[in-house]
Amino acid sequence: MHVIKRKEGTVTMIRPTGPMVCDEMDDLDTILTELIKQWERRVLINMEDVTFIDSAGLELLLSFQDKLRDYGAKLKLSHLNEINQKILEITRLESQFDVYPDALLAMKSFL
Fold first, then answer.
1. What residue ranges of the chain have pLDDT lower than 50?
2. pTM for this one?
3. Which of the residues 22, 96, 97, 104 could staple to 56 if both were Cys, CB 3.0 to 4.6 A apart?
């Protein structure tokens, strides 16, 4: 999995590419751990290029979100494809995340 990280004003945007599955998440895990150490307050994960999320991917997202919440930071997700949206629904995790149809709306929601 390839991951791009960039700063958009006060929001740190992460854009992973490929499946978010057990054997493919080392780069994403490293970047998310780095963001926690840097005390980033506003993180958006643009899921536009994430083709599939398995249980390990969901666990990583939930763990990262919990760590951010511990110090009052927020995580938002954008651009979930139909498959990944369905995965959140089936696992009953859709209410656990702030999900937006596009990155612009997600970034505005931090205000």
1. none
2. 0.92
3. 22
